[in-house]
Amino acid sequence: MVMKWYKENVWAAVALVFVRLYVGWQWVDAGWHKLTGGFDAGGFLKGAIAKPVADHATNAVIFPNYTYFIEHFALPNVKLINVLIPLGEFLIGIGLIVGGLTLTAAFFGMMLNFLFLFAGTVSTNPWLLLLGMIVFTAGTNAGRFGLDAYLLPYLRKVWTKLAHTRDKKLAGGGKTVPH
């Protein structure tokens, strides 16, 4: 009953606008500073490898697969990471602020928060992760007062048309269409 209210009620959507704006601004601000300030993730990545998140009692690395990923993919491709992180943060923020592709923006925001936490950076990540989960679990109600009100019906119409066209091709002649 509470989740139904949360996902459908207009007043819940109004409250979510304020959460979206706050979280969106945090992402835009972080991304903009990195985009304009000569961001280089190299030092952060080296630090995450040198001092990974470890159990205090045993010193065993808690996320060894993530440390391996950083060492063998992220660090060798640091130029790509230097573009993806600031641009991603900025776009997540814009999506949340304007309420466009809100669930997608919230999902990728939470994903970045988790990645930063796995690398050992606490900072504001738990707080933004919690607020991102509040936005994400609201479903489409989170974007009710934003671009999603116009964008989602259009995308549904396009998706339905594409699926209908595909179904017609599959039904006509028994030929299969590759996915």
Automatic annotation (TrEMBL):
Transmembrane domains' residue ranges: 9-28, 90-115
Location in the cell: Membrane
Superkingdom of origin: Bacteria
Topology in membrane: Multi-pass membrane protein
GO cellular component: membrane
Keywords for this protein: Membrane, Transmembrane, Transmembrane helix
Keyword Translocase found: no
Main location as per UniProt: membrane
This protein's name: DoxX family protein
